[in-house]
């Protein structure tokens, strides 16, 4: 597997993990979203541990603080997408959300009344 693909999968995995943690904690405390967002700053530690030096070409020449910044920049959008998705999914499941139709003529109301 190419190093770029491994990097992307590690980023997505970390986004999913932080999203699940953030969503589960948000059920009890609304400020837990902030904790989940701050977990992004640990992305480089997780990615370095998972990849064990098998970085994409543009990251291989970097070291130390420059590598950390480059990883965080490259990982941001992929991580954000998975973090938001899993945070909202786990939070919605955790609060036992039930849709409420505001119009009795809507498709949602018809579907809820037919069962």
Question: Explain this structure to me?
Answer:
The protein is mostly helical and about 120 residues long. It has one domain (about 5-115). About 75% of the residues lie in helices and about 0% in strands. The chain contains six helices and no strands. α1 packs antiparallel against α2, α1 (about 5-30) packs across α5 and α3 (about 45-50) crosses α5. The model has no long low-confidence stretch (mean pLDDT about 90).
Shape: elongated
Low-confidence stretches: none
Spell the H/E element sequence: HHHHHH
Task: Return Rg in Å.
Answer: 19 Å
Organism: Thermococcus guaymasensis DSM 11113
Keywords: Membrane, Transmembrane, Transmembrane helix
Protein name: Membrane protein
Transmembrane segments: 7-25, 31-51, 76-95
Give keywords.
single chain; 115 residues; mainly alpha; 73% helix
């Amino acid at each position: 597997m190419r190093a770029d693909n491994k990097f992307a999968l590690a980023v997505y995995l970390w986004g999913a993990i932080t999203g699940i943690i953030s969503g589960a904690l948000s059920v009890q405390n609304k400020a837990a979203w902030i904790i989940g967002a701050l977990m992004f700053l640990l992305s480089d530690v997780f990615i370095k541990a998972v990849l064990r030096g098998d970085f994409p070409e543009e990251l291989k020449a970097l070291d130390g603080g420059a590598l950390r910044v480059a990883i965080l920049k490259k990982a941001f959008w992929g991580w954000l997408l998975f973090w938001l998705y899993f945070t909202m999914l786990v939070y919605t499941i955790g609060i036992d959300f039930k849709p409420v139709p505001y119009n009795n003529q809507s498709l949602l109301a018809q579907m809820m009344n037919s069962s």
